[in-house]
Specification:
This protein folds into 3 domains: about 100 residues; about 130 residues, 3-Layer(aba) Sandwich (Rossmann fold), CATH 3.40.50; about 230 residues, Alpha-Beta Complex (paralog of FGE (formylglycine-generating enzyme)), CATH 3.90.1580.10. The protein is built from 10 helices and 13 strands. Helix 1 crosses helix 2, helix 1 runs antiparallel to helix 5 and helix 1 runs parallel beside helix 6. The longest helix has about 70 residues. It starts with a helix and ends with a strand.
């Protein structure tokens, strides 16, 4: 009987102990739930504070851009806030949100100078409806040209540790000059700046104290508290990491790749006026499916160099008193039309007088391609060609004869105008129908060292023209790989030139 009572008491004791353990467990999970809720509330309050801070910084940024515009003497039009994900270099939902917000903020501040977001969206739709065969969106520079913009606001966004950083760059479209840049990033406000956060942190400390008292109750509770402690530690480290965050990469413009790193005004090399910096790189020169003198396509390395943004004009050429030119039909007289009726030697003399030189044939094609392996820098879609070039279809076929003013069409993605059409362009090289054996010669700077025929020295001419002979004004005649040859004393209404310059090492 005693044994039986002992067993009953033991069972009751076990039941009581189990009940007490369950009660403590329920109490702990109740406190744990409250703690999680507090952390969640803290996170929400923090996120709201961060967003408010970020918006205030955006407003300050808009103020600075507005001051740049209003302090400028000429009327400035800003369009297409083009933002990319810094990691993928593609558009995403954050891109769309930031573009809309920035554009609309700018429009409210500068209604005369800014194209609002809904109009930019409309322009993209209009572009696609005009060119049905194009699947991709128009480039930033295309839209900017449609609005006759002078300046372009572009940038990248980057998210680290769930906090947003936005880098903005303001460019002058025609020169590619970086006018202004800034970084707008989210940051955590301190506890002294937010009573709500102070309260939530205090509550967390109280809960932590209560739970600490339960540490001796059961190993299970110890484990859960340890997990929570690690969670809190991760949250703190996450915020601290943001405070120490540094931007890792300067935005690389789709259209101005030479601006690949942040430099102070003092450190940045001064690009000569009217020229564009062409980045170094390798490309496939020639064409595997082109004409015989374009074969075979072959890999060529090009050092970085400066190139005139457009062909030499009558105005510029007139400033060289020792330089001669001829005259004839379809001559150009406007100061901003490209100079024509200039032979190769006078073209070279002019460039030398400016401490420049004629570009090599390889440099010219490299600049014309601007990173493309297609027929044209923008691809193979001929319907786009008239946006970039003066050729027979938009001159002669419409009753217009002769070369047009320079920079009247879109530049390529490296900021160079009129490489296709308008007028052909002299380059350094002598012409040979079989240039492949010579491309590995150490002296590529001067092209081939001697003409194939000394009596009739032929020089290479590139780019096609507005019209005229040799089908120069056709889509096939203005391809990046298309080669022409003329005797170096030729003076023609079809031929002009532009200059290049070495970059000092």
């Amino acid at each position: 009987m005693f044994t039986h009572l002992h067993e009953n008491n033991k069972q009751k004791l076990n039941f009581i102990n189990s009940f007490e353990l369950l009660k403590h467990g329920i109490f702990f999970f109740y406190k744990f739930f409250i703690l999680v809720f507090a952390v969640f509330a803290f996170s929400i309050a923090q996120a709201q504070t961060v967003e408010n801070t970020f918006n205030k910084k955006l407003e300050n940024t808009i103020e600075k851009v507005a001051s740049k515009v209003m302090d400028n003497e000429k009327k400035i039009v800003i369009t297409v806030v083009d933002i990319f994900n810094a990691e993928t270099l593609k558009r995403d939902s954050m891109t769309e949100e930031l573009e809309e917000k920035l554009t609309n903020m700018l429009f409210k501040k500068l209604p005369v100078q800014v194209i609002p977001h809904f109009e930019n969206v409309y322009l993209r739709i209009e572009w696609k409806s005009t060119f049905h065969g194009i699947l991709e969106e128009p480039s930033t520079i295309d839209l900017a040209k449609l609005t006759n913009a002078d300046w372009l606001l572009t940038g990248t966004h980057h998210t680290t540790q769930k906090l947003l950083s936005l880098r903005l760059n303001l460019y002058e479209i025609y020169s590619g000059d970086l006018i202004w840049q800034t970084v707008v990033e989210s940051e955590r406000e301190t506890a002294t700046e937010s009573p709500t956060i102070q309260t939530e942190v205090a509550r967390q400390h109280d809960f932590e104290k209560v739970i600490q008292e339960l540490l001796t109750e059961t190993p299970a509770i110890q484990t859960e508290v340890a997990r929570q402690h690690d969670f809190e530690k991760d949250v703190v480290e996450e915020v601290e990491a943001v405070e120490e965050f540094e931007l890792v990469e300067e935005f690389k413009s789709e259209f101005f790749p030479e601006m690949s790193a942040v430099q102070t005004e003092k450190e940045a090399p001064q690009i000569p006026e009217g020229m564009v910096k062409i980045p170094e790189g390798e490309f496939l020169m020639g064409s595997y499916s082109g004409e015989e003198d374009e074969l075979p396509d072959h890999l060529v390395y090009i050092k970085s160099f400066y190139l005139d943004a457009h062909e030499v004009t009558n105005e510029a050429y007139s400033r060289c008193p020792e330089c001669e030119r001829g005259s004839g039909g379809f001559d150009t007289f406007d100061r901003q039309q490209p100079v024509v009726y200039v032979d190769w030697k006078n073209a070279e003399s002019y460039c030398n007088s400016q401490n420049k030189r004629l570009p090599t044939e390889a440099e010219w094609e490299y600049a014309a391609r601007a990173g493309s392996y297609d027929k044209y820098s923008f691809g193979n879609n001929i319907s786009l060609l008239e946006n970039y070039a003066w050729l027979k279809s938009n001159t002669v076929d419409k009753g217009l004869w002769g070369a047009r003013k320079v920079s009247g069409k879109l530049p390529n993605r490296w900021g160079v105008h009129d490489l296709y059409g308008n007028v052909m362009e002299w380059v350094q090289n002598y012409y040979t129908p079989d240039y492949f054996p010579y491309i590995r010669e150490p002296d590529l700077h001067n092209g081939l060292n001697s003409p194939a025929d000394n009596e009739y020295p032929l020089r290479v001419v590139r780019g096609g023209a507005w019209g005229g002979l040799h089908d120069a004004g056709t889509p096939e005649g203005v391809r990046s790989a298309k080669r022409y040859a003329f005797t170096e004393w030729t003076r023609s209404f079809q031929i002009g030139f532009r200059c290049a310059m070495d970059i000092p090492e």
